[in-house]
């Protein structure tokens, strides 16, 4: 299918819409999401009872609306994400709960929201349990456990083990069960998320750990969540994860718990990256091409203000070029791709630790377009206004139609909330 990322090459269209048309209509830099690609990814996860999308990966309302229509539930980590869920048509109450708040603390905005609304909470610290118990005794909670190990595509995305701030330390589970009891909170579920973009071996270690913890909770347990973390094949040689094999492992954990408790146990999965990463493209325009010693630089109008993954993690994203003149780009050369920000780290082609690396890309001209691919997860949601750059536009292509789903931020909006006294 044409929307699947082809590496370091030419690209003239996304889901059948020409790059030229997209740029003429929406400008650059713009994020473009392909709705059908998201649906295809979701289809591979349907064996799980609940797909709970971690909206931190991409929380545009149009994406959340698509998820809701697909029967997907939501994870939220802030008052803003809770309100986004509501704005996209999600209800608070339901069985299973349509929205779950998972975090390691309650800020005061969230605490007020969960007090006033029947929002399901997944507690990642003993303080969350007691603060919730104080104001909402008698409700249900779920507990996020840090099983003592973790793994991620970078040490910054590992969320398990003693170096991580996430989840309730596994040795404190019994203490936390006692704490819940003190406030008549029923522990109805367990959740483990060991990291983002990890591998099959590490992800599957979680099942064994879950089994032991679940037995300690006992038969109040109605659900288990495998968390997120499913990797995306960003590089050509990487293969998609075997979701069926992953499901089978969880299925046997769930079945053994059902036998132990003699009642159904719901199996949830909580992916962020997996459904959306490959559906997203960031289109930028090459605005300068310069040579520094032996190095060629393509400088584009998107920077780490738009896509922070390379500077944060040395993350690799496939890239392609579209010619403005519509000519075919046959010659390639090694280039470094950078953005407009006044910071030497504003480079899209860098390895972990900040080493600048070359990428073989077509020989391009100023005015051609650079497309950064597999950018649908943790792209727009991690963007910033650094150097007073406005947030990019977002576009969704569905049923062959590209629609603006977020306007480009205006320049005056950048300081609209500031005062001179
Ligand atoms: N559930 C919880 C509780 C999480 O903390 C996360 C991710 C997920 C689910 C979804 O994980 P995923 O399926 O997307 O791997 N900014 C980083 C990723 C940070 C992930 C944080 N938590 C990146 O760009 O790679």
Tell me the radius of gyration: 23 Å
User: Which blocks of ≥5 consecutive residues have pLDDT under 50?
Assistant: 1-7
Distinct small molecules bound, one entry per kind: ligand LLP
Please report the total strand number as a whole number. 21
Number of helices: 11
Fraction in helix: 25-40%
Structural class by SSE content: alpha/beta
Shape: elongated
Content of β-strand: 15-25%
Largest β-sheet summary: 10 strands, mixed
Mean pLDDT: 95
The end-to-end distance, rounded to whole angstroms, is: 56 Å
Describe the structure.
It is a single chain. With 421 residues, the protein is α/β, with parallel strands linked by helices. 26% of the residues lie in helices and 24% in strands. It contains 11 helices and 21 strands. Strands 1, 4, 14, 15, 16, 17, 18, 19, 20 and 21 form a 10-stranded mixed sheet that branches. An 8-stranded parallel barrel has the order 5-6-7-8-9-11-12-13, surrounded by 6 helices. The protein has a two-stranded antiparallel ribbon with strand order 2-3. α6 (126-135) runs parallel beside α7 and α8 packs parallel to α9. The radius of gyration is 23 Å and the shape is elongated. The termini are far apart. The site of ligand LLP has 21 residues, from α10.
Summarize the structure.
The chain has 421 residues and is α/β, with parallel strands linked by helices. 26% of the residues lie in helices and 24% in strands.
């Amino acid at each position: 299918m044409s929307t699947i990322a082809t590496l370091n090459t030419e690209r003239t269209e996304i889901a059948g819409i020409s790059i030229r048309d997209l740029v003429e209509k929406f400008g650059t830099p713009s994020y473009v999401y392909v709705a059908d690609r998201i649906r295809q990814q979701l289809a591979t996860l349907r064996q799980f009872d609940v797909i709970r999308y971690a909206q931190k990966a991409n929380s545009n309302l149009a994406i959340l609306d698509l998820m809701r229509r697909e029967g997907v539930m939501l994870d939220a980590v802030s008052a803003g994400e809770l309100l986004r869920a509501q704005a996209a048509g999600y209800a608070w109450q339901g069985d299973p709960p349509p929205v779950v708040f998972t975090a390691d603390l309650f800020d005061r905005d969230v605490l007020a929201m969960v007090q006033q609304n029947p929002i399901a909470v997944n507690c990642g610290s003993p303080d969350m349990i007691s603060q919730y118990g104080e104001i909402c005794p008698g409700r249900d909670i779920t507990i996020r456990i840090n099983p003592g190990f973790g793994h991620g595509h970078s040490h910054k995305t590992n969320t398990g083990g003693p170096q991580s701030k996430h989840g309730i330390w596994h040795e404190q589970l019994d203490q936390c069960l006692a704490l819940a009891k003190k406030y008549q909170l029923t522990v109805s579920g367990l959740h483990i998320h060991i990291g983002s973009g990890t591998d099959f071996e590490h992800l599957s270690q979680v099942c064994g750990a879950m089994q032991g913890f679940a037995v300690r909770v006992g038969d109040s347990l109605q659900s288990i969540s495998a968390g997120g973390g499913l990797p995306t094949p960003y590089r050509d040689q990487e293969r998609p994860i075997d979701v069926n094999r992953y499901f089978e492992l969880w299925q046997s954990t769930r079945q053994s718990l059902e036998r132990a408790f003699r009642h159904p146990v719901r199996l949830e999965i909580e992916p962020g990256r997996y459904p959306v990463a490959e559906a997203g493209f960031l289109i930028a325009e090459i605005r300068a091409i310069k040579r520094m010693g032996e190095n060629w630089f393509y400088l584009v109008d998107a920077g780490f203000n738009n896509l922070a993954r390379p500077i944060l993690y040395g993350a690799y994203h496939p890239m392609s070029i579209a010619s403005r003149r519509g000519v075919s780009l046959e010659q390639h050369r090694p280039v470094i791709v950078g953005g407009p920000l006044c910071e030497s780290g504003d480079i899209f082609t860098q390895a972990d630790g900040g080493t600048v690396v070359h990428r073989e890309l077509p020989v391009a001209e100023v005015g051609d377009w650079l497309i950064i691919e597999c950018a649908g997860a943790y792209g727009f949601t991690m963007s910033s206004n650094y150097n007073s750059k406005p947030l990019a536009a977002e576009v969704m292509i569905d049923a062959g139609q590209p629609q603006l789903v977020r306007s480009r931020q205006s320049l005056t909006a950048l300081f609209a909330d500031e005062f001179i006294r």
